[in-house]
Amino acid sequence: MLSKNEIKFLRSLHQKKYRDLERKIVVEGERIITDIIARHPQSVERIVVSKNFSGNQSDFIRFACETVDNQVFEQISASKNPQGVLALINFPVFQFNSSDFILVLDGVQDPGNMGTILRTAAWYGVKQIVCSPDTVDVCNPKVVQASMGAVYDVNISYQDLEEFLNKQNASIYGALLDGKSVYKTTLTQPAILVMGNEGNGIRKNIQKGISHPIMIPKIGVGESLNVATATAILLSEFVRMQ
């Protein structure tokens, strides 16, 4: 059984200030945990399962794995509908490296969008992402879960974007509604692609640093594309043109 202190510790990691202090995250769900074990086993510190859990535990055997009563599991779970398994994992280690392609995120707020962007970036081989300070925390458990572990595959840093862009010599592309169609634009590297906030897009002061405004032309109807979807489309174009 988990001690009262262990329960308190795991519950505390639901809050960002304690995650940052301990450099640890609690993630829930068999699929995400199995995926992290398969690709980043060194990040896993501990696994806890409830007596209700009916999934496959064979992947968990090599880790410190604790089975607890369902009531105890509900105490440490942050989910309204717990899946019966959670893992204590260590923060990914990030470092900024120069790269021929950098993805920049200006104020992306939704954890699901952020996680999907990380997953897509990893798929397309993006090695470096730079975020504005108010972009959602990549170590938010919802981001980690939505990324399916891709948070460990990409270097991520938080910086003043205006200052960062002013120092770059690469072509700076930005997703703007009044930009040139990406399908009529020659995309070259080294390059930086800037994506904006879900509701407000790229901030005006950041737009000043964009040398190549681009857009995804609308063929049908709709006000705008989801930022994660738009990022996937644009990354696909950058890869296709290389």
Describe this structure in words.
By secondary structure, the chain is an alpha/beta fold. The chain has two domains: 4-90, Ribosomal protein L30/S12 (60s Ribosomal Protein L30, Chain: A, 2-Layer Sandwich); 101-240, SPOUT methyltransferase, trefoil knot domain (Alpha/beta knot, 3-Layer(aba) Sandwich), CATH 3.40.1280.10. Helices cover 32% and strands 23% of the residues. It contains nine helices and ten strands. It has helices spanning 4-12, 16-22, 30-39, 70-76, 111-123, 141-147, 161-166, 204-207, 227-240, and strands at 24-28, 44-50, 65-68, 85-90, 101-105, 128-131, 155-158, 171-181, 191-195, 212-215. The strands form two sheets. Strands 7-6-5-9-8-10 form a six-stranded parallel beta sheet, covered by helices on one side. Strands 1-4-2-3 form a four-stranded mixed beta sheet. Helix 5 runs parallel beside helix 6. The protein starts with a helix and ends with a helix. The model has no long low-confidence stretch (mean pLDDT 93).
Present the secondary structure layout.
Blueprint: H1 4-12, H2 16-22, E1 24-28, H3 30-39, E2 44-50, E3 65-68, H4 70-76, E4 85-90, E5 101-105, H5 111-123, E6 128-131, H6 141-147, E7 155-158, H7 161-166, E8 171-181, E9 191-195, H8 204-207, E10 212-215, H9 227-240
Parallel strand pairs: 2-3, 5-6, 5-9, 6-7, 8-9, 8-10
Antiparallel strand pairs: 1-4, 2-4
Helix pairs in contact: 5-6, 5-9
Summarize the structure.
This protein has 242 residues and is an alpha/beta fold.
